[in-house]
Design a protein that fits this description.
Blueprint: H1 2-30, H2 37-58, H3 66-69, H4 71-88
Length: 89
Amino acid sequence: MLLDLFFYYLIAVNVLGFSLFGIDKSRARRHTWRIPEKTLFAVALLGGSIGCLAGMYTFRHKTKHPSFTIGLPLILALQCFLAYWISIQ
């Protein structure tokens, strides 16, 4: 039951991360209010790193910012390491 809830949480937060990159790209083109970078990173840190990476490359948004091209894969690597570490405990 708890594992199912966690799985659904991960799906939701990754869909959110993917969507936020698309929304921010659209707003950047229209020169309107943008989603803060710290919000994008927060969603990635909360488990949405795969969705954020997919959104970044799908929408070609923030792909020239080293903080994103290096930071998001590092967050994903850390999350994979933590998942592995938890699984062997």
